[in-house]
Amino acid sequence: MIKVQNLVKTYGQIEAVRDISFDVQQGEIFAFLGPNGAGKTTTIKMLTTLLRPTSGTVEIDGLDASKHQNEVRKRFGIVFQDPSLDDELTAWENMDIHGALYGVPRKLRHERTDMLLKLFELADRRDSFVKTFSGGMRRRLEIARGLLHTPKILFLDEPTLGLDPQTRNQLWTHVQKLNQEERVTVFLTTHYMEEADRVAQRIAVIDHGKIVAQGTSAELKQRTDTETLEQAFLALTGSSIREEGAEANRDLRNMARMWRKN
Amino acid sequence: MTTIYILWLRQLKRYVRSRTRIVASLGQPLLYLLGLGFGFSPVFEKAGQGSYIQFLAPGVIAMTVLFSSIFSGIELIFDRQFGFLKEMLVAPVPRLLIMVGRTLGGATVSIIQGLMVTVVCVIAGFRPSLSSLPAALLFLALIAIVFTAMGTAIASVLSDFQGFQLVMNFLVMPIFFLSGALFPLKNLPKAMEILATLDPLSYGVDGLRSVLIGASHFGVATDFAVLSVLSVVFMAIGAKLFSRIQL
Question: For chain B, which residues score pLDDT lower than 50?
Fold first, then answer.
């Protein structure tokens, strides 16, 4: 379903992704793990046509992602790592725009919106502006939105960041259900190893832009001679803390907020 | 069609909800109208040019549409900063349609702003011919489309607001000041005349002036033709740059 060959992305001198290759089979839940700044998000951006690779190819459902962008975009849904909601709209409106963009017929769109808002316990806030939402509520809305249309592939980039255990459980249960009942292929990244262990059938570990190990959770543990996936992960990637690229956007975001106070 | 409509609607909703923006946007035109309009009125009349308020009002209306349109286009940077741009860019619809929807939404907002300022102008003593309103609306729409598309094009290549001030000071303000919004284009120094001829807004101001008060420099047909061509050109440039955005 996803076929990545010799994928490279460089920004000037910095090599964010260095020659990675992997396959994800149809109907599989595939976890892509790595420390901060390892190249996970850059890879996802290339898989989802947001970023052009420096070299290498990405095939989604047999289609070259850099040549057939629109066809490829029809095949996946994504929950981003950082916010992608419109603050000035209500929860319901955010869902509705998404559904319209993805060509979900109006009636179905409304039904599914109601169902998902209920599932992620946002139903009573459906007409509140997103700017009044807490961090956790925003995450939940992002996830609900990502599930509005039923794609062939679902990308989840650290979807559970900042969520309480209840919501996490809700999310993974729903994702597993989609995977089993509708054969949705899932490509996820997370920092919670026990989540990856629970849901993922196969795991790839990326570090410094390179894939350092691939296999099932059991294989990774066996290979590193460890008990848990967390230990296996640390054995593979070392225990030093990574420097993450400074978030240059933060200042600007604050500045932008200043501009549109109301 | 749904894509264009839903993104058009989004721009409109955002506008209607930001009351501060609506009120704030009336401030500057009002200042120009009162400060310049009444300030220069005696001199203008002595020079035998008739009422300055009559002359200035179409210029102020065009200015409002210019600023509002550029801002609507540049708002794309907010979408980038707040993340909604990602949501639009991964959507399985041609980016051309996304750009068109956003631009038409922004242009609609600018037209509304322009109409509000027209009302303010009338209150201040501006007397346009009422039968000219449909034609004036057409010119407002053309100005709005040209500059919203220009704003979108600029915002597609800027990644943050650092460049915004640059755009304002070296592009938008010159476009306004050289357009003949404030003074007649007749008998200008040669260099100034050339600049005014190259300025897209000149044709907008002139078009509005010719339909609203019956005074024209280029001729209303020229104004219409130039603006129509420019709206297509800028839409094309904007769409091209927008569809090339990478995140």
Answer: none
